[in-house]
Request: fold
Amino acid sequence: MREPLSIGRLRLDTPVLLAPMAGYTDLAFRLAVRRRGGVGLAFSEMISPRSLLQERGKRIRALLATSPEDSPLGFQLYGSEPALMADAAKRLVELGAALIDINMGCPKRKIVRNGSGASLLARPETAVAVAREVAAAVNVPVTAKIRLGLKENTVASGTFLDDLAESGIAALTVHGRTGEQGYSGRADWAGIREVVERVRPLTVIGNGDVTSPETAADLMAATGCRGIMIGRGALKDPWLPRDVACALAGEPAPDRPSRAERLELMRWHFEETLAACGAEKGVIVFRKWIPLYARKLNVKRPEMVLMLKIKGRAELERAFDALANAG
Reply:
């Protein structure tokens, strides 16, 4: 059995973390995964410090939404201005953040062009300055999420990792691809291991290509990471963090969810989306989840395409009923 994972003073029940994913890890999805079990720490979607401090619009309120059940929760910030990031971190702590994460790995073109996300890997002095100032500004653990480089696997060259490890951060999450790779190709676990060995004894959390309890165990064995962060795997299967946590704890594998359980979760997720977004917008917002649920429900492609065109609540509920009857 593995030792419990601690990040700074924050002790986690499991070493399994639910990754921050823009457009996906809202409160409804976090609760959907937490209620299946296994999540030691979950994260918000990435947040703009400027929008946060200006408290601009409904979108920022949605990003900040949480509940007592949604704990512990880390908030992720993206940006490249140290003082602004520090001020935003202070505000998030006031709002109840258990941890602050700095996004140094987002590969999205808009974020990179703005000088944030993975572009910070090409400007190590700025990245370290952001980490140092945020860590000094708050009394909760601060982490950074990086990739192996912006265009090539260069993160371990120079003094960047040494400086980042000494900036005051409590842990480092490493995704085993470069920014230019996005999510293509296979994650480079050897590259993650190189980071682990370089920054030891700093806690490192591995991320990339965890699709099963077996791949989670393989990643930890191959890299020496002390924790696992699951992203896209949880989108496809909200039960995956539970299964990974059980495997890492040496516990028997839980029963796989039935089709009825998956459909029940899909209905619940839909209702939560409507409650958060309103009836009309909620249906549109929920469409992105349909293919993810449909794969596990064995929905044929023509039926799924029809569901993606639905615009009204009643029509989508009839589609759910049809899926239940088909099972």
Summary: The first strand starts at residue 6 and ends at 7.
